[in-house]
Amino acid sequence: MAKRLIILSLATTFLAVGCVAFPEDGGYYDGRYDDRYDPRYDRGYGTSYDYRYARERDRQRWEYQQQQNRLELERRKRELERRQWEQNRQQQSDWERRRHEQQRLIEQRKRVAEQNRKSPSDWDRKKREVDRQRLEQQRNKANIRPNSKVQQQRQAQEKRWDDRRRDSNQREHHHRDR
């Protein structure tokens, strides 16, 4: 067991010393990496640097950036078109709503006007009926008291009322027809 422990210690020591004595990728001084001797970080000073790879990498990077810019532009364009479509759709629905509201108001006004037109004629009809009943009652009273002068005055008054009624009806019909 002791032999194994000693052999393991010696192997570890040689491996550790070998790695420190012969580093593969440059030296470490003061805990910092010194890349002066690393060929991967040769900045064109050595003969081993190939500019074709750098140009190819730059071209690929540029193409990738152009593609990303194009995609972003297309995304913005689609977003703008979507917003415009939404705006147009909203305006169209608002316009339709206002148009329907206006049509509804026009129809409502027509109904009210028609009712108002019918109402006076109903009112006139009722008024004429009441007048006629009143006149009949007056005639009946007049028949009870035969007074020819009073009857003539009543008939003249009824004739004037009938004439006025006809004139007012003609004016209303003439006024409505306009």
Q: Tell me the span between the first and last alpha carbons.
A: 129 Å
Number of helices: 3
What is the typical, i.e. mean, pLDDT?
Answer: 79
Give helix % range: over 70%
| Residue fraction in strands | under 5%
Q: How is the biggest beta sheet arranged?
A: 2 strands, antiparallel
Low-confidence stretches: none
N to C succession of SSEs: HEEHH
Number of strands: 2
Strand order in the sheet with the most strands:
1-2
* Principal-axis shape: rod-shaped
Which key features would you list for this structure?
178 residues; mainly alpha; two-stranded antiparallel sheet; 3 helices; 3% strand
Written overview of the protein:
The protein is 81% helix and 3% strand. The chain contains three helices and two strands, in the order αββαα. The chain is mainly alpha-helical. The longest helix is centred in the middle third of the chain and has 94 residues, at 51-144. The mean pLDDT is 79.
Helices and strands in order, then pairings?
Layout: H1 2-21, E1 27-29, E2 32-34, H2 51-144, H3 148-177
Antiparallel strand pairs: 1-2
Brief summary of the model shown:
The protein is mainly alpha-helical.
